[in-house]
From TrEMBL:
InterPro entries: AAA+_ATPase, ABC_AA/LPS_Transport, ABC_transporter-like_ATP-bd, BCA_ABC_TP_C, P-loop_NTPase
Keyword annotations: ATP-binding, Cell membrane, Membrane, Nucleotide-binding, Transport
Organism field: Herbaspirillum hiltneri N3
Domain ABC transporter: 10-251
Protein's name according to its UniProt entry: Branched-chain amino acid ABC transporter substrate-binding protein
Gene3D superfamilies in the record: P-loop containing nucleotide triphosphate hydrolases
């Protein structure tokens, strides 16, 4: 954790979400410190993606509070939450396959400045956009692919591009939903390294199934089972928690 730790970046207070009769998120409370890297693990259907949708504004909580720093954000529109400093990626890769890598990133940057209609904007605006797009290209290590179409990148490069687009708004808090899903061991290692770099100075919340990744990347872990956090702690604490072993980890992890 970076200096300035213990200032709270994100708080969940008794957050609930029901879809009709189905009570999916059942009272989640959690504080994330600034600079913390926090993993969510838990079985399929536990509610991890739903929780991310609630935080990023795709869904409104049925009850409870979500705060970004001091600011209540529960129920605000996704775009508003993004402007307040929180960005997220989705479980499914979300890029523009027919646009080049550069154009994809530039779109992200333009959105940050609200430049949907660029034709009548002053040239000074463009050079700032260019500069930031170049920076992002380098940060996600795709400079050599700047003119490659998004759809022609390898799978893991597409995910790097997507992470770049997520970073275009320069978020304080970054939510990534299974960014390494479907990657080879080598691609996973590469992406973990990239994420370590890119999350520096930010707060990271990540859903990830690969225990090696979780244990090596994250400061703390929360285990979500049937919409409730059954344990939160350091990797060591979670690893040795009997309830967690029973509920989720089974024999997959050496304990
Ligand atoms: N929009 C929705 N309407 C109804 N049920 C939903 C909706 N979104 C998710 N669910 C349900 O919520 C539960 C948790 O899903 P999800 O958050 O995707 O789990 P996870 O990401 O942990 O695998 C599942 O039972 C799923 O069917
Ligand atoms: Mg999910």
């Amino acid at each position: 954790m970076s200096a300035g730790a213990n200032k709270i970046a994100l708080s969940l207070r008794e957050v609930h979400k029901s879809f009709g009769e189905a009570h999916i998120i059942r009272g989640v409370s959690l504080d994330l410190s600034e600079g913390e890297r926090h993993a969510f693990i838990g079985p399929n259907g536990a509610g991890k993606s739903t929780l991310f949708h609630l935080i990023s504004g795709q869904f409104k909580p049925s009850s409870g509070e979500i705060l970004l720093g001091q600011q209540p954000i529960g129920g605000l529109a996704a775009e508003r939450i993004n402007r307040l400093g929180l960005a997220r990626s989705f479980q499914i890769t979300n890029i523009f396959p027919k646009l080049s890598v550069y154009e994809n990133l530039r779109l992200g940057v333009m959105q940050r400045f609200g430049l949907q209609y660029t034709l009548w904007r002053p040239v000074s605006g463009f050079s700032r956009v260019r500069e930031l797009t170049e920076q992002l290209l380098e940060q996600v290590r795709l400079t050599r692919h700047r003119d490659t179409l998004g759809g022609e990148l390898s799978y893991s490069e597409q995910r790097s591009l997507e992470i770049g687009m997520t970073l275009a708004s320069d978020p304080k808090v970054l939510l990534l939903d299974e960014p390494m899903a479907g990657m080879s061991r080598e691609e996973t290692d590469y992406t973990v390294d990239l994420l370590r770099e890119l999350s520096a100075g930010r707060t990271l919340m990540i859903v990830e199934h690969d225990m090696d990744v979780v244990f090596s990347l994250c400061d703390r872990i929360s285990v979500l089972v049937y919409g409730q956090v059954v344990a939160t702690g350091t990797p060591e604490e979670v690893r040795s928690n009997a309830q967690v072993q029973e509920a989720y980890l089974g024999t997959e992890v050496n304990v």
